[in-house]
Write a structure and sequence with these properties.
Blueprint (H helix, E strand, L loop, with lengths): L1 E2 L10 E12 L2 E12 L12 E10 L4 E11 L8 H4 L11 E18 L1 E15 L7 E12 L2
Antiparallel strand pairs: 1-2, 2-3, 3-4, 4-5, 5-6, 6-7, 7-8
Length: 154
């Protein structure tokens, strides 16, 4: 954690912190991360804000080449800028200029390690819920879709 000088705007100071844990035992892995900030005078209604986000990713290797993965992510913008649907959920439709304070996302899928991490195929289904619009009259929203990714490192 720390205060980043490049984020000082008009004398306001911003600080960030992060806690990351990765636990492995046998074929099971659990990754957890919490990231937060303290932003002076950045709340849309005025005042300081403390946004925080949390991610939890359990995974299990069924075989040496096949891994099942789940993910839960949560964002609480605490009245600051909030999350835009198309920026938080890749390839989602734009919802005007809506910025949401509370976002929850779920993912269930797997990885096929064709040649280790250098060549792998990931596929799964993701669903996200956006609540408490901070900037307009659009209501809550839900977005879902299938995700695939082919990774080739060379």
């Amino acid at each position: 954690g720390g205060t980043i000088p490049d984020t000082e705007i008009d004398g306001r100071r911003h600080s960030v912190w992060d806690l990351y844990v990765n636990f492995n035992t046998g074929r099971f892995n659990l990754l957890a991360e919490i990231l937060g900030a303290e932003l002076e005078d950045e709340k849309l209604t005025g005042g300081d804000t403390k946004p925080v986000t949390f991610t939890l990713i359990p995974s299990y290797y069924v075989t040496d080449d096949l891994e099942l993965v789940a993910r839960y992510s949560q964002i609480d913008a605490d009245g600051s800028a909030g999350g835009d649907i198309s920026r938080v959920f890749r390839r989602a439709p734009e919802n005007g200029s809506a910025l949401y304070e509370d976002i929850q996302a779920y993912y269930l899928g797997g990885n096929w390690y064709i040649r280790g991490n250098a060549f792998k195929l990931s596929a799964g289904y993701e669903w996200a819920k956006f609540e408490d619009n901070l900037t307009g009259n659009q209501g809550d929203a839900e977005v879902s879709g299938f995700r695939t990714r082919l990774q080739l490192l060379f």
